[in-house]
Each structure stands twice: as C-alpha cells, then as structure tokens.
Write a structure and sequence with these properties.
By secondary structure, the chain is an alpha/beta fold. It is built from 10 helices and 12 strands.
C-alpha cells in the first residue's frame, strides 16, 4: 500500500475512493473499503489527520493513533491512502474547491462513504453534490449500530467486549513503557507502566484481561496474556491515572519500548483492600482470569 500526503504524489490512476476519518477502522469503515475494492477500479482511501473535529475546537478521544489507523487501513485492502492534513484553511474550502484540491487530482472516479458523510465549509457538501459533480457514488451497505461514537461510549463504560463486536477486533491501547512506582515487583507481579498519547481514548477505570504485544520496527514480537489495571491505584491512595500491565510468562526489560495491549474483557472495578495480603490474593485471581479469558469476536 502506498501512503501519500498530497494527491500529486500518487501514481496516476483511475480510483474508487473511500473517504472518511476512519478512526478505529471499524466494521462500518471496512464495509466502505470493501465496496471500493468491488468496483474494479484501483481501490484507495482518503483520510484526515488531525481529526477534523479536533481542529474545529471539539474534544476528540481517538480510538487509534494515525500510525495504527494506517496499519489497519492497509489490512483492509486499499492500494493507496491519501492522508490529508486537516487545517482551518481546509475546513473553509467550499465543497467544489475541496473536490478540485483533493479528489480530482487523486484520480477519483467513484466515491464511497457513509450516508452521513459531509465535507466543505459549513458541511455543505454531501454525496448528492458529488453525484451532481460527475462522480459515481454507489450505495454502501450499512452496518447497523456501528459507529466510532458508539464504540467510544462503550469504552467509556468499560464494555471492551461490546466495543470489540463493533470494531471487529479487540480495542487496543498503544504507548511506551515508562518507569512507574515499581510496587508491583515487590508484590510478586511486576508491571509495565504504559504512557499513551493524550488524545487516545482510555477505557473506564478497572481491571482488564487481554494480550500485550511488544513492538519493534517490523510489528508485534510475540503475545503475552496480560492483566491490566487502569486507574489511580486506590489501595495506595493514588490520584494520578496509571495504566499498568502484568504480562504473564514474560521475562525481559520493556522500559522505553512501544507496547500494544489488546483488551479482551473487563474483570472488575478497581478498589482498595483491607490488607496488602488481600490485594495480592485478588491479583492472583485476576491473573488466573486473564489466563482463561477468550478473545472476543
């Protein structure tokens, strides 16, 4: 898959273009991408970075980083992806100006998007306008109930299994392992303290089970069942959010390394315990549950 930042950088071709932000690359997004591939033209995608709503002044918690979004797009099959830098200036373009600046020079012949897709100043551009401008705009099969907004709602409620059903894969947290309190090691459960980008959505506080994937330049290196704590560590009176992962059967040093964690299920709320011994007993039960949990989907 080729990734370009300007239409002129793409090889000349007639393209069927799926267009959208594609945050999370969920099942609905993949239906649009599959429809592009089914046209017989060169399938491509146009996505935006930063997220348009963030540029327009709204708070947005992302499901994926742009780097991970591009990896997921590649897996979905487009041969080219145009990453359009979303700026205030771009948001002020009239719909016809956006078409002339982005879609036309990208070789777009067919446009595929969800029915709610809007573009241009004041969100005045829509699929009907694209048809009037001469593009083919075939209908895209809907995936009922699937949207990035709904997935965010589920994650904020801690329902990672429900979110996985809409994503078509487990939700992920990705960041860099940094130094923590190193308290887990003294309890017999050394943890990796994960620092994630500030604009990435982190699910509700609680204890989760999943799989941790250490990353190198070529992608994941192995996978380790994981018990994950998201919260403030109330047993020790914490106030700062921490994301702490205990990787089962892992030996080695992860400090400074990128780590991706798939969240498979939520085990329980975080809470304080009557004693440290009670805490250790509960962690042992969490680890056993993490070893037994099944991947959603």
């Amino acid at each position: 898959m080729s990734i370009v930042r300007a239409p002129a950088d793409a090889a000349p071709a007639e393209r069927a273009v799926a267009i959208g932000t594609f945050d999370g690359v969920h099942r609905g997004h993949r239906a649009v991408l599959e429809a592009a591939a089914a046209t017989g033209l060169r399938p491509a995608a146009v996505t935006f970075d930063p997220h348009p709503r963030a540029v327009l002044g709204y708070e947005v918690q992302l499901l994926t980083t742009i780097a991970r979004r591009l990896q997921l797009l590649e897996a979905a099959g487009p041969e080219d992806v145009l990453v359009v830098e979303f700026t205030p200036e771009l948001s002020h373009l009239e719909p016809s100006e956006f078409v002339e600046a982005v879609l036309a020079p990208f070789g777009t012949r067919v446009v595929l998007a969800g029915e709610g897709f809007r573009f241009g100043a004041g969100r005045r551009g829509d699929l009907d306008l694209l048809r009037r401008l001469g593009f083919q705009v075939p209908p895209v099969p809907l995936v009922p109930g699937v949207s990035s907004s709904r997935i965010r709602e589920l994650l904020r409620a801690g329902d990672v299994a429900g979110a996985a059903g809409l994503l078509g894969r487990p939700h992920e947290l990705e960041g860099t392992v940094v130094a923590g309190d190193q308290r887990g090691g003294t309890l017999g459960f050394p943890t990796a303290n994960l620092a994630v980008p500030t604009d990435l959505l982190v699910p509700a506080y609680g204890i989760y089970a999943g799989v941790a994937l250490p990353l190198d330049d070529d992608g994941p290196v192995g996978g380790f069942r994981t018990a994950l704590s998201i919260g403030v560590n109330p047993h020790y009176g914490g106030v700062e959010r921490r994301i702490e992962a205990f990787l089962l059967d892992f030996e080695g040093d992860l400090y400074g390394r990128p780590l991706r964690i798939e969240l498979w299920d939520r085990l329980r709320d975080e809470r304080a315990f009557a004693s440290e011994a009670d805490l250790v007993d509960q962690i042992a039960r969490d680890v056993a549950a993490a070893r037994a949990v099944r991947k959603p989907g």
